[in-house]
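Researcher: Quick test of sequence recovery. Tokens follow.
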């Protein structure tokens, strides 16, 4: 495969840094777009982005956005979560649309939170958006990329699930609790969790850069599990007991009811229909395999 020139925003974050390493390992030229006021930087808050920073790129990958689960969802935090995504995505999309020779593909991140709480229903990319705050984030996030699509650029939205890595994501705050022996299922543990190994997440992002897929693509493994099964597998991998459940009221107090319902005991049962149809092959197909890989 001919090496590509790829511009990445959020390239120093949890997913971005891993993607940068993988792309460079396969021989691609990677440019990490950095915020600032000096030469070679951009500033989404003020709408400043020199198109020359994107010139000659084969692809732009946008992974920007403050953490959704890092802090309680106050009104101010919710506005920041949305703005950090729509400002960066919108600025990139408008800039790309106005270029004479834009990159062929714009990979702009999203999340499976788009679907809201799906209960026991298995959903794919054809399912409608949910009605909660997490869903509204994703709807606005994806809509901000429309100028690029209207200009004829292939736009793809990786709707990522729970990425399993010891270095960040959902496992980071859980690990120390489990190692202390106080990790347990959330609520009754019946809610579905749609996960993906870090290795497959990065491979899937590269697949989206190289393939002809467009629109939303679910980045999840083909075997979602209930929280109780996830908890049991995590305990087995860490060799720790998982007998003490975390009651719903405790999550409500810790996170706030809205955030707890969405991120804690909300149910998301999602299928990677478009990836599978396109021939993508997962290296981790069971949650225990992915957790064991994450922890060596």
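Model:
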């Amino acid at each position: 495969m001919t090496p590509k020139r790829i511009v990445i925003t959020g390239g120093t974050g949890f997913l971005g840094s891993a993607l940068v390493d993988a792309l460079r390992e396969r021989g691609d030229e990677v440019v990490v777009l950095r915020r600032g006021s000096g030469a070679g930087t951009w500033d989404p808050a003020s709408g400043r982005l020199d198109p020359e920073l994107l010139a000659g790129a084969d692809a732009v990958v946008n992974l920007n956005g403050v953490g959704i689960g890092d802090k309680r969802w106050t009104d101010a935090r919710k506005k920041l979560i949305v703005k950090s995504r729509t400002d960066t995505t919108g600025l990139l999309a408008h800039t790309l649309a106005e270029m004479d020779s834009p990159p062929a593909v714009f990979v702009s991140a999203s999340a499976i939170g788009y679907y809201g709480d799906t209960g026991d229903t298995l959903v794919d990319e054809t399912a409608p958006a949910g009605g909660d705050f997490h869903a509204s984030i994703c709807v606005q996030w994806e809509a901000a990329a429309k100028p690029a699509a209207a200009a004829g650029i292939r736009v793809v939205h990786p709707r990522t699930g729970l990425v399993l890595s010891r270095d960040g994501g959902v496992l980071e705050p859980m690990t120390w609790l489990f190692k202390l022996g106080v990790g347990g299922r959330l609520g009754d543990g019946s809610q579905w969790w749609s996960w993906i190994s870090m290795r497959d997440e990065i491979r899937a992002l590269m697949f989206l850069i190289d393939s002809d897929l467009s629109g939303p693509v679910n980045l999840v493994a083909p075997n979602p599990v209930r929280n109780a099964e996830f908890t049991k597998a995590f305990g087995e991998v860490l060799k720790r007991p998982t007998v003490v459940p975390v009651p719903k009221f405790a999550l409500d107090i810790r996170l706030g009811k809205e955030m707890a319902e969405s991120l804690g005991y909300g149910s998301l049962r999602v299928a990677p229909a478009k990836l599978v149809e396109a021939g993508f092959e997962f290296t981790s197909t069971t949650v225990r395999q992915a957790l064991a890989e994450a922890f060596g």
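The chain has one domain: 5-294.
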